[in-house]
Write a structure and sequence with these properties.
Elements lengths: L2 E5 L2 E3 L5 E8 L2 E12 L6 E7 L4 E3 L7 E6 L4 E6 L8 E14 L2 E8 L3 E5 L2
Parallel strand pairs: 2-11
Antiparallel strand pairs: 1-3, 3-8, 4-5, 4-9, 5-6, 7-8, 9-10, 9-11
């Protein structure tokens, strides 16, 4: 199995910055892509940013130029640097590992895994 643990959420004023971290643990062989999603109250979960093992990135239009996703493959950790935060960025942010291959009981398995979420609140 693969476990994801997020950290770094909190309360920040508009225009401020936060850095989210998500560490994957378990007998991980590789992870294809890691991503951040968010879900605001009453809204569907949406993709914020994603990064492949090779470093290719993808961003939602609403965060381009403000958020930066990065990844440390050796540590199986993904980061989300969020700058110029706006009240509309308020949401629970979830980390996702896509195509995570792990070893268990003599076999390899592949699956997608989610973290438990971390609250980001942007308010004055």
């Amino acid at each position: 199995q693969v476990q994801l643990v997020e950290s770094g959420g909190g309360l920040v004023q508009p225009g401020g910055s936060l850095r989210l971290s998500c560490a994957a643990s378990g007998s991980i062989f590789s992870i294809n892509a890691m991503a951040w999603y968010r879900q605001a109250p009453g809204k569907q979960r949406e993709l914020v940013a994603a990064i492949t093992s090779g470093g290719s990135t993808n961003y939602a239009d609403s965060v381009k130029g403000r958020f930066t996703i990065s990844r440390d493959n050796a540590k199986n950790t993904v980061y989300l640097q969020m700058n110029s935060l706006k009240p509309e960025d308020t949401a629970v942010y979830y980390c996702k590992a896509e195509g995570a291959m792990y070893y268990s009981g003599g076999s390899y398995y592949v699956g997608d895994y989610w973290g438990q979420g971390t609250q980001v609140t942007v308010s004055s």
